[in-house]
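quick one, 441 residues, struct below
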Amino acid sequence: MVNLSVAALVDRARASFFFLPVGFVVLAALAAEAMVALDGWLGVDATRIPVVVDATVDSARAVLTTVATATIGIAGIAFSVSLLLLQLAASQYSPRVVHGLFRDPYAKVVIGLVLGTFTYCLVVLRAVRDGGNAVGPAEAVVPNLAVSLAMVAGVVAILATVAFINHSAHSMDISELLHEVTSETLASAVAVWHDEAPEEDLDTSVPSGEGHIVRFLSNGWVQQVDNDALLDLVPPGGVVRLETAVGRYAAGGVPLCTVWPAPNGDAADAVDTAGRAAVRIGTTRTMFQDATYGVRQLVDVALRALSAGINDPTTAQDAIFHNVAVLRDLLSRHGPAPVVNGVEQRRLLRPEVPTPTEVIGLAFDELRGVASEQPTVCIYLLEALHLLCTSTDFPADSHADAALRSQARLVVEGCAASKPLAEDLARVERCYQTRFGVATS
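---
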């Protein structure tokens, strides 16, 4: 359970614009105090360092005030650019890709840098004292080393903002955005879709008798599941059947899991509490344990590109072929096992985990319907399916191969049903025959 909570916290921090900038602010405040103390310890020797300026009280205050004012203005620009990018990406490509932009560390580092510089200047400015002031020490205090560092930090903040604007402009390139989604999906697949084949004789049987049903109490997307915690719900030899899966929506009152043997009394309440704690739900889907969410995002970009309001087949082509890279990796692996065997003969049944055939359907079913009236996009789909058939390592008689070839056939049939020009339909049929060796009637 601790691992699930820690993983949830790390995942939330990665998608937040708050945690990293706050860390920069805290570090900047500590650095300012340390630099002021170092200045006091060095005394006049600090000005003998070549890069340190010999400032007066007025010039030190002017430098610190100018840098602080400039950096807080830069922070506003950085925030504005970030929010503008999120808005444009959501409206132009898909609301689902916004989640990936939140995880971009570049924007959070730049915002943290400028806010940290602002905080540093404020803390150092507090240490600058005029000797003529009735309150404070009798002689002026000018932390020259700290002021010099403030000047350097101000210049770095400005350069970082320019680099951030350049980075933001390139990040809105659709190929760059799709590449980021693809990379994150492939990283998620490594953790969930395994290289080794599962055991051949998996026991998927359900014990006789009525089991105890644990139900959700709240609504949201299933983001993480702790298999070990679910196995701990039952005694040795017991069985847990998970009635949901990561990436599914949970509604209050629907079954979460069923356990055998059924506990009684207070033990049932304890099982309910532990079972709900083993499944984390949130307001949005994430890719932490859900590689198929990346497929969903790429499909959404293609669907949005093919919508009447945008009508951008080239962007759809880009998304389709990025999805080929994701599907090739997923289909060359073994999906989540439908059964997880625990210690002392405990079993966790997972009938709702996605199968390769379902992932193929997720990638092509909706696109086929939208692309049926655009023969060129149908050709893109046939090319993508052909690449998958020739690049993945599975037997020709496997379910995945059959599903891919079935999708190719449905692409041609859907295009024919939309009644395009005879020349356009002939192009699609010719591509199908060339790539799959099947003549159309």
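The longest helix spans residues 57-92.
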